[in-house]
Amino acid sequence: MKQQSTRKPFGLLLRAFLWSVLVVSVSSCRQELKKTTAEEFRMEVSGEAQGTTWTMVYYDLQGRNFKPQVDSILKEIDRSVSTYLKGSVIDRWNHSDSGTFVDPLFVELLKISWSVYNSTSGAFDPTVMPLVKYWGFGPEKYEQPDLVEAEAIDSLRGLLCFDRLRLRRNQRSFKLESLIHDTLSTDSFFLSKPFPQAQLDFNAVGQGWSVDKVVEFLDAKGIKVYFLELGGEIRAGQPKPDGSLWRFGVDKPIEDLEERELQAIVALRNKGLATSGNYRKFYMKEGVRYAHTIDPATGYPVKHNLLSATVVSDEAAIADAYATAFLVMGQDSTLSFIEEKSYLNNYVYLISSENGVFTTEVSPEIEALIEEN
Fold first, then answer.
1. Listed range (64-68, 181-185, 369-373) with the worst mean pLDDT
2. Helix or strand holding residue 357 (H, E)
3. Which residues of 266-297 are buried (b: 16+ CB within 10 A; e: fewer)?
4. pLDDT at 51
């Protein structure tokens, strides 16, 4: 007797196959559709670098964790321009007799620093390092002078030489100004110094610039909605998915480290922000208050009523450097500066103290972004 075949007809097999493909496809789609709101694509990472902490919030459809890359970027920066890292490029330069070779990161920071040095007539000067150390605010923190000697300060002021530094390559010498006019690429050079005691300190611009370097990485990865904070220096990208701007507090300039009060809130979009203040970094000696901001013109810590300068700019490095320069210049000179050089497009918020009462000055460009408490 002929046996009946147990094989299924081809049509049935084809339908079974297509059904299985459909089931797998639907299952896969369901896995991809698990995230249904923008907040579910929100990523937050943080870490430690440059003697402080950093935090980054960003929105990424791919859910990528960028912490390892950010840590790597910040470590590379430290190896170049950290005065606290023994053996860094800047450490080797500071301890050299005539200079050393410097890397492209170092040269890039030189370019930014020269721009601010030039526009502020030297109020921002990275070669102020010997004076910073003399007053006890360098890497060897709080080793204040037993006796302030005018002759010693005048001697240290003689070491201010940012406009005398030279970049050398292929037996040619260039002024730092050549970097601004783009006649030189930001490449490796030998950076010479006019005398062995000259030293550089990029701490007044370095953290803001570090934030900018991380943002360059985010841009390369297609991340547009973000904020990044490193040691108080900030960059914010496009508004959050709900359309709201990134909001950051400006501290009330009070000395108590345990008590933090906000003086104002700033809303940002595609901007960098930095605040420089003298209300916490200072020491008292024999009834005299010494602030950590040193005026290159006098060699002494600044003495004026401007306690805090907040600057908003396209780049955090520029905001960082100008905030320092304005703290050197004081309120009146800063207001004259931003009125005269309006082309710089700096958004400035100043807090001063008059007889124990806080007063504020706000540039017109930032008024719409500020909410005062």
1. 181-185
2. strand 357-362
3. bbbeebbbbbbbbbeeebeeeeeebbbbbbbe
4. 85
Written as six digits, the tokens of 177 are: 């100004």
- Any idea what DSSP says for residue 167? E
- C-alpha–C-alpha distance, residues 200 and 202, integer Å: 7
pLDDT digits (tens, 9 = 90+) for 134-145: 888 876 655 677
The alpha carbon of residue 183 and the mean position of all alpha carbons in its chain are separated, in whole angstroms, by: 26
pTM for this prediction: 0.86
For residue 242, what pLDDT is reported? 93
Cβ atoms of residues 310 and 348 within 8 Å: yes
User: Average of pLDDT values for 234-241?
Assistant: 97
Question: Which of 313, 127, 131, 276 minimizes the C-alpha distance to 202?
Answer: 127
Q: Is the separation of the CB atoms in 71 and 62 below 8 Å? A: no
Q: Is the dihedral of CA 275, 278, 279, 281 positive or negative?
A: positive
- What domains does the chain contain, in order, with CATH numbers? 88-200 (1.10.3980.10)
Instruction: Give the list of residues 6+ apart from residue 184 with CB closer than 8 angstroms, or none.
Output: 167, 174, 178
Name the DSSP class of 3.
Answer: P
